[in-house]
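DM from R.C. (forwarded with permission)

"hey, sorry to bug you on a friday — could you get me a structure for this? deadline for the figure draft is monday and I only need the backbone to look sensible"
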Amino acid sequence: MRKRISAAVIGLGIIAASVLSTSGASSHGYTDSPISRQKLCANGTVKNCGAIQWEPQSVEGPKGFPNGGPADGKICAGGNGRFKELDDPRGGQWPATKVSAGSYTFSWRFTASHATTDFRYYITKDGWNPNRAVTRADLELTPFLKVPYNGQRPPYTYTHPGTLPSGKTGRHLIVGVWTIADTGNAFYACSDVQF
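My reply, with the result:
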């Protein structure tokens, strides 16, 4: 009887480890450049971030942004309540990447590669208020950059060139959206920048 119980416990342990490692492997991605809020939490630059500090790759929400996708005020967390700290404006004090208009190299880091429709980038309008959670009304709803990916799977580190819009000054927020081709979801990454 003890041998059967031991065998059952070992079997359940193997199954649990398998399930946990599989679910971890299905994690996804975030922007490295400009650095995203979730990466700032994961690397310890920003404290009191909740669960996102261990799962920066998991900001997944419904695709179709800006017509669909996460609700206003919940965009940076992809509509995922577990990561609500990403939507907290923190008094406009998120660390910001210094940028200038013109050529820029965007970088994503992935923990699982998915068939990809495209990458899109949206930026806040002039005069937006960094002291409140971002809404569609705060954003220019035409992406300033769209990178088609035609259903391919990106490498685990993916960089591509782009152009940051001209005429921007001061603090802004860039919302990066990685749209998955074969599911109803996309991944969201908010990056605070200073022109």
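R.C.: lifesaver. The two ends are 70 Å apart (CA to CA).
me: no worries. Residues 31 and 108 are 4 Å apart (CA to CA).
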